[in-house]
Specification:
The structure holds 3 protein chains of 3 kinds. Chain A is mainly α. Chain A has helices spanning 3-30, 35-44, 56-59, 81-85. Chain A has 4 helices and no strands. Classes of the chains: A mainly alpha, B alpha+beta, C alpha/beta.
């Protein structure tokens, strides 16, 4: 077989495979599997995803305040890996009351 | 048209032949390239799915959470403040919340202990679908008086727990087992596990331990006048900002967190500025720059000679450029598709096996969640344009210099 | 067929290293003739050959091919003329390593986009005619010197050119192979092709099949020995 034919076949195979994966993605995304979970969130009043359990400012990301990472010791900078790829919560420096 | 296609195929044939000539080098290049695409695509799939899932799951989280701060730390929230908040116009309800952490020295894991609202119900009755394991022996009568929290058919009675899958895994426990806790005063309190939350909900519930209010207060020695924080709901969602401002005015030591902030926190959770992310990202970009540079920095003597021969036998400069285009395209397309396919398998079928050590960090309790494969076509396209196009261009660029190679180079060249 | 009028070629013009390879060469090369350009090295043979073969342009003067002025044509047309009209045989076989003999032979035809089955057939026929069809699938590294040159000749003929240009074709061949080469050249002539050879090998320019020998020295044509 010609090399170019072989190349186009393998490229086509990869594109088809990727296409199948994308179909897989849209099929699984359309399953209402998180209905139950969303209900759990609502009933229990949960605020965060349980992605990291090692530190409380990454377990409840949105509930963390500016001081949390330093609460154990002022020199305790970042020793939890999860803290190094998450960001501080949104609106943390925002004041809900105008101070003027 | 036929002639044009045939010509491109000939050129591609030749390109592939010459790539195969330097098998080790080009195969290594392809693997490295695919690896970079793989890492970037895995990161992309993972973060996008987490964000998407967070936005879907947390859309019903409390509208406003009010914490009390003291000297820069969370403090217990005094119940008497609840009346103050209730009196604000527009507030529909104020729900006290009791929750906290417990470090289990035995398993080395952190749990989140939470008191579910009395009378609340989650899950489906076990008779319908058996999604969740329940203890068939535990359909005891409810305590008279206050309604109990129910999970499927199981009522949360004093002395019992409903736990998340991750917690059960960390302790190797099952329903009916007893779980000892060391209370604030040193006493050992033992609770029976009445039910285990479903594995589908593990992304939010993995480390949860649900227990009754009485047990929670007994365990942590929290006075009846205090709760952890309160969840405030409002009549009109548009008044959230106003209500929040009023809360901070009336209770200056409080910190309100609104739902929108929670959602936005998760929307930007894995930002490229995050420490680990920027390390991975810059390493990938640097590696890419290095080999793009290697490509662009010129043609070897052998390549120049070869181009001389091609031109001498009648190839135009444009044919040579097309050859180089196919070289770049063949490598980058193969690398792109292989990398993306592997990344998809990695993130959605193997549970991000490679990222796991970093994500786990020091925790002994790591949620086993299956991410729903959300794929952003926009991101895929961006990745395509950030990898395939620059590489192909980097391959073609040095060939402009080849255009200056005269076809009679082949004649002038004497011996090699 | 090919007419050169006052052709000059200056290298490194304007630099101290400026040097004039050809000085006002005027020449007429007849169709279906075997012409040999001879002269010591540095006399401008190869330069003249590359100008005739549309590989480089003269600094001054005009080149006409079958009465058509080609000096001022843009590169694209020049390449087109080159690949349809000329077949080149170099001093070195100049085959591309790592690919098969067959692929090497078909290389000049690739940009023309001919149907592959035709092209392959043509290439095999050409290899057959020079008795190297058995090596078609072999890599060029495995060929002997004579085989490599024959493969290069087949490559030169793949687009069926009317003019064959050979630059010192016998320089790396032994006597036997050189005679063999001249036989092939004679065959070209019987097929109606025009052949232009540069050589300072007596075996070539004294050969009976040669129609005309042109001596070059210092970029100029010497007297005209027949």
């Amino acid at each position: 077989m010609r090399k170019s034919t072989l190349f186009f076949y393998s490229l086509a195979a990869e594109i088809i495979l990727l296409g199948m994966l994308l179909v897989h993605a849209s099929l699984s995304a359309s399953q209402p599997k998180w209905e139950e979970t969303a209900n759990l969130v609502k009933t229990l009043g949960l605020t965060d995803l349980c992605l990291f359990t090692e530190a409380r400012y990454t377990r409840h990301l949105s509930q963390a305040d500016l001081n949390t990472p330093f609460q154990d010791h002022p020199l305790s900078l970042e020793h939890f890996p999860s803290g190094s790829f998450t960001l501080p919560p949104e609106g943390i420096t925002k004041d809900h009351e105008r101070l003027d | 048209m036929r002639g044009w296609i045939e010509k491109q195929r000939y050129i591609l044939d030749f390109t592939l032949s010459s790539l195969l000539r330097r098998k080790v080098k080009n195969f290594g290049l392809l693997v490295l390239y695919a690896l970079i695409v793989f890492i970037l695509a895995s990161m992309m799939f993972f973060t996008y799915s987490i964000k998407k899932e967070a936005s879907l799951l947390l859309k019903d989280s409390p509208e406003i959470i009010v914490q009390k701060l003291m000297a820069g730390r969370h403090e217990l929230f005094p119940l008497r403040h609840i009346e103050t908040i209730k009196n604000i116009r527009g507030v529909a309800a104020v729900e006290p919340r009791l929750w906290g952490y417990y470090f289990d020295t035995h398993a080395g894991a952190n749990y989140t202990l939470l008191v579910p609202p009395a009378g609340g119900k989650i899950g489906k009755p076990a008779s319908k679908t058996a999604v969740v394991e329940t203890d068939p022996h535990d359909r005891a009568a409810e305590h008279a008086g206050q309604p109990l929290f129910r999970f499927n058919d199981v009522a949360l009675e004093p002395g019992t727990l409903i736990v998340g899958q991750g917690m059960a895994r960390a302790r190797h426990t099952d329903m009916g087992d007893f779980m000892p806790f060391r209370a604030f005063d040193g006493n050992i309190l033992s609770f029976r596990i009445a039910a285990i939350l479903s594995s589908e909900s593990e992304l939010v519930s993995s480390d949860l331990i649900l227990l009754t209010e009485g047990d929670f207060r007994k365990l942590f020695g929290i006075d009846n006048d205090y709760v952890t924080d309160v969840a405030v709901s409002v009549n009109n969602p548009r008044e959230i900002a106003t209500v929040t401002a009023k809360i901070s005015r009336l209770l200056p030591d409080s910190r309100p967190i609104i739902r929108d902030e929670i959602l936005r926190t998760y929307d930007s959770i894995f930002n490229w500025r995050g420490g680990m992310m920027i390390v991975i990202f810059s390493a990938a970009v640097l590696a890419f720059v290095i080999f793009a540079w290697d490509k662009a920095s010129g043609l070897s003597a052998g390549e120049r000679r070869e181009i001389g021969i091609l031109k001498a036998v009648g190839w135009e400069t444009s044919d040579v450029i097309q050859m180089k285009f196919w070289e770049g395209a063949a490598i980058s397309l193969t690398a792109f598709f292989s990398g993306v396919i592997l990344a998809y398998i990695h993130v959605f079928f193997t549970g991000s096996l490679i990222f796991e050590p970093a994500l786990k960090g020091w925790s002994n309790l790591y949620p086993h969640f299956e991410l729903t494969p959300f794929v952003s076509l926009e991101q895929l396209t961006t990745l395509f344009f950030l990898t395939v196009i620059p590489y192909t261009v980097a391959t073609i660029v040095p060939i402009w210099r080849a255009a200056t190679i005269d076809p009679d180079t082949a004649m002038r060249h004497s011996g090699e | 067929m090919i007419e050169l009028v006052n052709v000059r070629k200056i290298f490194n013009a304007g630099n101290p290293s400026e040097f004039s390879a050809l000085n006002s060469v005027s020449l007429n090369i007849g169709e279906n003739k075997i012409t040999v350009l001879t002269g010591p090295s540095g006399s401008g043979k190869t330069t003249l050959l590359s100008i005739i073969g549309c590989m480089s342009r003269p600094s001054a003067g005009r080149v006409k091919l079958s009465g058509r002025e080609i000096t001022s044509l843009p590169e694209r047309f020049l390449t087109d003329i080159r690949r349809k009209t000329f077949g080149f045989i170099f001093q070195q076989p100049n085959l591309i390593k790592g690919i098969s003999v067959l692929e090497n032979v078909m290389l000049p035809a690739y940009p023309l986009g001919e149907k592959r089955s035709h092209l392959k057939e043509k290439a095999m026929k050409g290899l057959d005619a020079l008795n190297i069809s058995g090596k078609a699938m072999a890599k060029v590294e495995w060929l002997s010197g004579g085989e490599a040159q024959r493969a290069a000749i087949v490559r030169a003929l793949i687009n069926d050119p009317s003019i064959i240009i050979a630059d010192e074709p016998t320089a790396h061949l032994d006597t036997k192979l050189s005679y063999r080469f001249m036989e092939i050249v004679e065959k070209f002539k019987t097929e109606g092709k025009t052949v232009i050879i540069t050589s300072h090998d007596p075996l070539v320019y004294q050969s009976a099949v040669v129609d005309r020998v042109i001596g070059l020295r210092d970029g100029k044509i010497e007297g005209k020995p027949s």
